[in-house]
């Protein structure tokens, strides 16, 4: 586009954005929690320049650390993920490397393979059908706005939040996903989380604390919950209780992209159904591994390495080995990770 025309267009767009946002705080998760008046593209640090995100969307992510894209994943794809999840739960397929988790309230004696006993499957990088989620062009198109063109799928999950037993164990405590990751920089990592059905406060939607991605990684540990806590569900130890909270009510196929420092969690599932979502953490293949020994991440690193050692019967694996094994390139080339 001719530079004069481009700058004229930008001015019109800016005027439009400034008018829309003047003095308003809109209680909708894709709209401006913050004002758009201070737009300075050169100050963007959480999003990259390309033609996918509008200025408004970039600004929103920069200020809030998340962005919801409506209706991104098709019903047909979601049905395929659901079918594959059910096959895994019935133990008809056992993808290598996959962890199958149960809610802490489910005792071993109840065990009969069924989707009612599985609260989450993670690390489905070897399951062709579920891993299709991480390669969907409509997902990667947005992921690239945060990671750049060389994209690694690092961590995959299908979460089947069970109806709460009354002990409130279906809650996911507030946390920052970076706590689990031994790679940086954080601004080159993004989570895509897709609702596999209508999700609201009744069945335990995501809750996010807008703007907290601008802070630093905080210490995490198991919360002191009376009814018990699920394995690896570390919660943030200290955060600003006055920070606004936004509950993300989403429809099937809606996808939220969020920064790994954004404080988030999810509520109790008060419905009778199993609330499903599929997600992947993506990272720029140029990210590098860090040594988390002696940092606040040491506690989770020990748990992750112990779990992987038991699973593969190996004694001397490291956090870096675990993540190198989990990671798959989904666009461009594999570089450091
Ligand atoms: O899906 C959920 O309930 C929460 C997922 C989440 O925050 C996570 O696994 O990091």
Automatic annotation (TrEMBL):
Please give the superkingdom of this protein's source.
Answer: Eukaryota
Q: Which SUPFAM superfamilies match?
A: Clavaminate synthase-like
Listed Gene3D superfamilies: q2cbj1_9rhob like domain
An example Gene Ontology CC term for this record: peroxisome
Its EC top class is oxidoreductase
Q: Output the PANTHER family linked to this UniProt entry.
A: PHYTANOYL-COA ALPHA-HYDROXYLASE, PHYTANOYL-COA DIOXYGENASE, PEROXISOMAL
Q: What is this protein called?
A: Phytanoyl-CoA dioxygenase, peroxisomal
Which pathway is it part of?
Lipid metabolism; fatty acid metabolism
Q: Which InterPro entries match?
A: PhyH, Phytyl_CoA_dOase-like
Question: Which reaction is the catalytic activity of this chain?
Answer: hexadecanoyl-CoA + 2-oxoglutarate + O2 = 2-hydroxyhexadecanoyl-CoA + succinate + CO2; 3-methyldodecanoyl-CoA + 2-oxoglutarate + O2 = 2-hydroxy-3-methyldodecanoyl-CoA + succinate + CO2; phytanoyl-CoA + 2-oxoglutarate + O2 = 2-hydroxyphytanoyl-CoA + succinate + CO2; eicosanoyl-CoA + 2-oxoglutarate + O2 = 2-hydroxyeicosanoyl-CoA + succinate + CO2
Entry EC number(s):
1.14.11.18
Q: What processes does the entry annotate via GO biological process terms?
A: 2-oxoglutarate metabolic process; fatty acid alpha-oxidation; isoprenoid metabolic process; methyl-branched fatty acid metabolic process
Which species does this protein come from? Moschus moschiferus
State the Gene Ontology terms under molecular function. Answer: ferrous iron binding; L-ascorbic acid binding; phytanoyl-CoA dioxygenase activity
UniProt record similarity statement: Belongs to the PhyH family.
| Keyword Disulfide bond listed | no
- Is Metal-binding found in the keyword set? yes
Q: Mind listing the UniProt keywords for this protein, alphabetically? A: Dioxygenase, Iron, Metal-binding, Oxidoreductase, Vitamin C
Write down the required cofactor(s): L-ascorbate; ATP; Fe cation
């Amino acid at each position: 586009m001719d530079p004069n025309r481009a700058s004229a267009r930008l001015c019109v767009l800016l005027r439009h954005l400034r008018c829309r946002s003047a003095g308003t705080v809109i209680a909708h998760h894709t709209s401006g929690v913050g004002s758009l008046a201070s737009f300075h593209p050169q100050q963007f640090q959480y999003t990259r320049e390309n033609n996918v995100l509008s200025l408004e969307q970039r600004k929103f992510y920069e200020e809030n650390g998340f962005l919801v894209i409506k209706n991104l994943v098709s019903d047909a794809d979601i049905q395929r993920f659901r079918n594959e999840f059910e096959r895994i739960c019935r133990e008809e397929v056992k993808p290598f490397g996959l962890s199958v988790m149960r809610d802490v309230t489910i005792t071993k004696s109840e065990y009969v393979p069924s989707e009612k006993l599985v609260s989450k499957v993670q690390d489905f990088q070897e399951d062709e059908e579920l891993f299709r989620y991480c390669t969907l062009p409509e997902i990667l198109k947005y992921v690239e706005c945060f990671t750049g063109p060389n994209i690694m799928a690092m961590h995959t999950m299908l979460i089947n939040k069970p109806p709460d037993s009354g002990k409130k164990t279906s809650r996911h405590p507030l946390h920052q996903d970076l706590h689990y990751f031994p790679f940086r920089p954080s601004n080159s990592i993004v989570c895509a989380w897709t609702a596999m059905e209508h999700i609201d406060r009744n069945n335990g939607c995501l809750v996010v604390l807008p703007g907290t991605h601008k802070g630093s990684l905080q210490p995490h540990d198991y919360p002191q919950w009376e009814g018990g806590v699920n394995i690896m569900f570390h919660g943030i130890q200290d955060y600003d209780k006055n920070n606004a909270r936004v509950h993300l009510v989403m429809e099937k196929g809606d996808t939220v992209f969020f920064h790994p420092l954004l404080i988030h969690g999810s509520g109790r599932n008060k419905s009778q159904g199993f609330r499903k979502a599929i997600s992947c953490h993506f990272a720029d293949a140029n990210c590098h591994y860090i040594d988390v020994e002696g940092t606040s991440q040491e506690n989770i690193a020990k748990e992750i390495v112990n779990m992987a050692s038991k699973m593969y019967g190996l004694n001397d694996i490291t956090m870096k080995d675990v993540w190198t094994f989990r990671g798959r390139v989904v666009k461009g080339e594999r570089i450091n990770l």
